[in-house]
Amino acid sequence: MTTRKIPGRTRLRILLALPAAAVAATALVACSSAGASPTPSSSGGGNSSSSAAAGASTLKTTTIGGATVLTSSKGFTLYSFAPDTSTTSKCNGTCAQNWPPVTGPVTASGVSGTFGTITRSDGSTQATFDGHPLYTFAGDTAPGQAKGNGLNVNGGLWHEITTSGTAASSGSGGGGGGY
Fold first, then answer.
1. pTM above 0.85, yes or no
2. pLDDT at residue number 3
């Protein structure tokens, strides 16, 4: 076999394409696991029952940019989307691929606030905190990152969720206002 030398420009293009491919792969993996198997809700509304809480996933907290924020059990920052309401997610399709909904129900030890669930347009169950549907961000590739905080994409602002249930405006993602 003969070995072909790759010109410098082609090599540079390949190197520049690798991070984009990694983000796309992360989004695909996050999307495929986000909607795996929705938890049926006997209440049909926005509140989780005590029996649902017994089978709930456990969230964590961490400090990012001086704010204590909610994270997934793996330490990934949770976000809210400003256009959402307490009963409706406005992030569907491609948006939900980049911002995978947190499936519910969930709980977090030592966090005061109200955890609940909503039913998404596809019939899956999404976790909420103090009336805000919860999401992760495919652009966060390691625990403790908040690259999505303050982004204005998909028709609205994204904010990391603080343990007080408000939008954090001073995180590492660029900040932003309240709801």
1. no
2. 53
